[in-house]
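Risk register update: the risk of archive-format incompatibility is retired. Evidence:
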Amino acid sequence: MVNALSKNKKHGTQYRTLPNSWLFLSRTSAIKEYAFMKSLYDVGYPTPKPLGQNRHIVAMSVVRGLPLYQLHSNRVSAEQAQSIFEQSAVLAGRLAQHGLVHCDLNEFNLIVDLSGVQSKIANSGVEGVKRSDDLDGEDRDWEDDATEHYVRHAGLPDKHKGALSSNATLQKHGIDGTGEVVVEAPPEPQERLPGGDPKPIVTLIDFPQMISTRHPNAKELYERDVECLKIFFSKKLKCHVE
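Archived output:
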């Protein structure tokens, strides 16, 4: 999109100004989102894999799990809640060490996979899976089957209706939240906590508002991010935070 050409009728001069359209602002935001996501992903941050950006659209890989704000204390163990908080706090500190402040690090921008298989699936994939539902009717090998596991296993304990846990026993006639019958054994978690529960995996999203630590308000915004995390974990997840 090019700059809008405006005319000053009083003085008869023409000058260029940035249009205040939602499309221009969304495109600017998408460019920053993709740039930050790609940079962070390339150095090992737990973010979705950036696939591409066009106009106001950012394409990324599927993230298995659910937003942190949807978790309740009765759905996670105290050990899991503590692990999620520690991973979130480490992310804030790690970003600061690299000269960045997220500026919106809260329960709405953290995706949690309680089953602990997100990284395992995204990194290794499932080889040898063939599908024949392509438009051309030909079979193809899909190296990454993360979407399949995202649909079939919600990551919540299977005592909750419509959610099958990846560490649950094989259910021949189980039905997940999509109404699809689950017939395969769920993948094992990448790591387990000392108590035996799967170690949750936290994924960071939403980057357009990020700033440098050289920004005049960087310290204030960093402290606000940390305080938001403390309030959420202490009040909603009943987690002891320091």
